[in-house]
Amino acid sequence: MRKILFTTVNGILKPFKGKGLSKTKIGKFIYKKFFVPNKPNYIEVEGFKLYLHKGEDLLSDSLLISKEYEPIETKIIKGLVKEGDVVVDAGANIGYYTVLLSRAVGPSGKVYAFEPGKECFDLLKRNVEENGCKNVCLINKALSNEEGDIKFYVNEKDMASSSILEETSHLGKEVIVKGTTLDKEVIGEVDFMKMDIEGAELDGLLGGKSLLQTCKRMVIEVPEDRRDFEDIKQLLVENKYKIERLDEGNILCVKKE
What we know:
Blueprint: H1 2-13, H2 25-35, E1 42-45, E2 48-51, H3 58-66, H4 71-80, E3 86-90, H5 96-105, E4 110-114, H6 118-130, E5 136-139, E6 142-143, E7 148-154, E8 173-180, H7 182-185, E9 192-195, H8 201-206, H9 211-214, E10 217-221, H10 229-238, E11 241-245, E12 250-255
Helix pairs in contact: 1-2
């Protein structure tokens, strides 16, 4: 019965995705009353099984409604990453990109997956184990420009938007997590990095000065209107990257020959 009800509600919501229904009173009512309580625990997407957050969560809900997540970035990543590559998933969340990258690099490659939030990390670990991703190194720490304890603000209504940024403190509870740097955790040269750490990308990149010397390609979430975009752009240009905007939120960075 639960599955039938969810399928029916999902069918109603899908045509309205991205059209503002979720911001209306009726949309919020349908979502909270019927969609969230009847969500399945997992979904099969891109040929693998992914366990999801039980409550409200943008990533999980997008996968359930559309059966896809960030199609442009997914296509780019699948085209750029090859077998044997060493890659970084900075801001792994529940592991959608981690598993995708793990399959792309194969047994001879390696994936470093960073995720500071306990709830997300628990699901990340489960999804990595469920899909037999033995080439993944899981790191339950926040990326920054230095090591040490960091305040982390957990958004319980959208786990994917939890952040170390103090301006997000009003969104949820404060916890203390371990902070680290890319250069501390990642050994050797890197072929590709995906970075989405909810506004802390500049600090994350500053903690990876050695990585930026060798990493060939990156996809980074940083909207053009964000206040630190120019600082990030300057850092990338100084490290000889060509920058191309993929969409409103993400840029593709390719190391110049």
